[in-house]
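2024-03-11 09:14:02 INFO receiving multi-entity request
2024-03-11 09:14:02 INFO entity count = four
2024-03-11 09:14:03 INFO echoing inputs for audit
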Amino acid sequence: MTKKPDEATVAAWIGLSRAQRVAMARVEARLKAEGLPPLAWYDALWELEKAGEQGLRPYELERAMLFEQYNLSRLAERLCRAGLIERDACPHDRRGRVLKISEAGRAMRRRMWDTYSEAIEEAVGAKFSLAEARSLAALLRKLE
Amino acid sequence: MTKKPDEATVAAWIGLSRAQRVAMARVEARLKAEGLPPLAWYDALWELEKAGEQGLRPYELERAMLFEQYNLSRLAERLCRAGLIERDACPHDRRGRVLKISEAGRAMRRRMWDTYSEAIEEAVGAKFSLAEARSLAALLRKLE
DNA sequence: GATGGGTAGATGCAATTGCATTGACCTAGA
DNA sequence: TCTAGGTCAATGCAATTGCATCTACCCATC
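2024-03-11 09:21:47 INFO inference complete, emitting structure
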């Protein structure tokens, strides 16, 4: 039989799923209450904003966001329909696309951040001291 | 303006979503590879097994699992169709139901645990010392 | 310059989830 | 007892996700 997890590992696993679901639900609820789009939109817009002028290929964004290929394809379509990104043909690879954030996209990202950041503070910041938050972030980084 | 999160808080938040998604994806993939049902089934079966003889009302299971009411209603229906639980009328409240795990349900839960526990060990246990796992679990508990 | 194997992205279809609402019942208070 | 307001669970419908597959294209090799 392969190695089994000890108590602490199981507790960490359970804590991870529950904590994430609780925190995520609070943050998403906050965005929805303001009539804003879901978090995935923010993530995509932020990655594209960071990428700057030359944008990102869908497969790059897909990896940055840990999204499935088909989900990213559809998310991009929705963002495009909403006018928040542009989806051009790729000059170097005719199979491909290049995704770029639009002005409206930048505005939406900023607007979402106002609410999102408050929600993060409430859901996470308020529960921890600075040292605890650092410690948690460091531990979580080891999981990837 | 309401209080904004500091760097460490944002890092903890991002770490939380990414770590959870990575770990969850690995564990779910493992179950799927063995032809087993998704994790939510395990959670439900485990809660019902812990509840023992008298079972649980759907709304109790819903709270234990942090599920939406309509999702739990449908999950219960699927589990029932698969023969893993029983869904009886509730004697004390004629609106309600009582969910109980079946023998097949207990067998399935055990079978899933063989794979699930290995996956937890790989996805979480292998990344941490005992002290780290304890520390992570303790920090995550503060989030709820 | 053909071709086989691989990568990028899209999409049809089925399953699941989210949302709003319903129907049935419970319970506290007039 | 009757009723108003609430809770429990289910469900119609729309949106999203998962899965499998498709088309178009790239590229290394012959």
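2024-03-11 09:21:48 INFO post-check: The helical segments of chain A are 7-33, 39-51, 58-65, 69-81, 103-123, 130-141.
2024-03-11 09:21:48 INFO post-check: Chain A has one domain: 7-141.
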